[in-house]
Amino acid sequence: MYSIVVVNWNGEKYLNSFLLSLTKQSYKDFILYFVDNGSVDRSIEIVNTYSERLQIKVIYLKENVGFASANNVGIEEAMKDDSRYIITLNNDTELDEDCLYHLSETINKSNNEYIYQLLMINFYDRSEIDAVGIKFNEDFLANQMFYKENISKLKNDIEIDGVCAGAAAYPKSALIATKENNHYFDQNFFAYYEDVDLALRLKRLGYSSVLVKDSIVYHVHSGTSKKDSPFKAYYLSRNIRLYLYKNIPKQDYQRKILYYNYLSVRRTGRFLIKGEIMNFIASIRGVYDFLNLRKYY
User: Fold this and answer.
1) Is the pLDDT of residue 131 over 90?
2) Does residue 162 share a domain with residue 20?
3) Euclidean distance between the first and final Cα of the chain, in Å?
4) Domain Glycosyltransferase 2-like: where (predicted)?
5) Which one of 53, 82, 92, 151 has the largest count of C-beta atoms within 10 Å of its C-beta?
6) Are 250 and 207 in a shared domain?
7) What distance in Å separates the CA atoms of residue 274 and residue 290, rounded to the nearest whole number?
8) Per-residue pLDDT tens digits for 244-270
9) CA nearest 168: which of 223, 126, 207?
10) What CATH number is given to the structural domain containing 79?
């Protein structure tokens, strides 16, 4: 059995596709924990129409507490059931009908408890890779491997350092081991880079991550938060800095700060060059708020 946690915020546009794909799974032994982040659209109405076809537990939150916090709520609830693994999925995804079957086959063949990345493919162009996992470089920066490349590039086995929480399976034991301040995902991140932070913590504890190429999930990408929005610009600007400041030994951080600042200025400057003034302002505000958050680490 698996516990599936999905966080939703005004995602009515994507829910029928997502939920219908769960009803069509060839592997059916799972519970869906649907955490609604204070939606004001028809999300709850839609999910309730699937209550007889899926085993669903709906968790209502009064306001949008963010992807990280809402996932923590769902994970905490899922910890009470008998599953070994918790699967996190974005609400703007659609699962191939054998997705969970292939994941189950892979897990059952292994004697170790790995973190599993499900293969994420572009929802609209199903020859294009969306995510295969995270690779950390020597500067602790996270690279989303094979992003936007053709799926034909995945001929050989790929080594990854961590997983994207948009479609991943975590052993409960690993989540418990990495829990900090009573949280699984760091709630200060709100949205974006919370999974990178968790991936690095899991790697440092000795957990390995594995890509399951046959477990396919089609992903709209930024369906809820909107691509290139001020919301996304703000949290990426803030959270990349927060992730680095939190996780890198302070001596190394100080030694590399000029390089990190250069990358930051380059990212923010692109908004100005493209005339995206609101994104530029949001990115600058993210820097300011990062400075205020540093005191917690």
Assistant:
1) yes
2) yes
3) 37
4) 3-166
5) 92
6) no
7) 24
8) 999 998 888 888 888 888 888 888 888
9) 207
10) 3.90.550.60
